[in-house]
Structure formats: structure tokens, C-alpha cells
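User: Predict the structure for this protein chain, please.
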Amino acid sequence: MNNPTAMISSTRSAPKTIHLLLMLLAASLFASVAPIRASPKAYDLVRYTGRAGHFKISFNYADGYPGASTLTVTDESTGAVTNLEHQSESMAFVPEKPGGKITSVTFTIDVAADTPEKMKGALVSERRRIFFTLIKSK
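Assistant: Here is the predicted structure, written as C-alpha cells:
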């Protein structure tokens, strides 16, 4: 290589080539990760709220996977909050920590049907059954 100009131009193009390779690598990594973030959930979360006597009920229904549903009941007279867990194939919930006023909460819903605007159920507290209707939150 007797031509000094050729040597200078080849050393200047090396950073551009490396930059281009890095850009292509980053683009290919992004393209492979983007579909993972855009994948759909296995279920839709539908929120319901309502009251049963002096209890405030907040029900997050996992439409498509009822076992992931969550239920919280607040005793408005004492402020005690009870979290309930899904018990079985039926829509029955029991307290995560037994020993409180609430024994169980059950819902009457056809899990195969479309999500209703209202959901009916019963709360058992201190041997009393209190019926209620929850309304779908907008």
C-alpha cells in the first residue's frame, strides 16, 4: 500500500461499518422481543363492586380463567378487610386467613357464557346468608 489516501479512507470506514453492524444487531434483537411483549393475556379482568349489608365487595373476575379471580370484602362497621381465594371449580371463595366474620362467598355465574353486567351471589357471615348483586364497573 503505497497510497496514503487509500489507507486513511479504509480506517475511516471501519467505525461506520461497526456502527452499521451494531444497528443491524439491535434491530434484529428488537424484532425478536417485540412479539413477546405484544402477546395477548390468557384472560380479561372485569371489575365488579357492590354491597351486602354493611360489607363492601370488590370482585375482580378473570374472564377466561376464573381461578385467577380475586375477591376483597370490607366490613364498613369495623374497617376490617378480608381477602378471599378461589376455592374450587365452582365460583366459591373462602378467606385466606380463617377466623374472621366471613365464612364464604359464592357467585351464581355460568363461566362459559359472556361476562354479565350484573353478578349475583351470597356472603355467609356469622351463620347468616346475605344475598347481593354486584355491578360491572365501567
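The chain has two domains: 1-39, 44-136.
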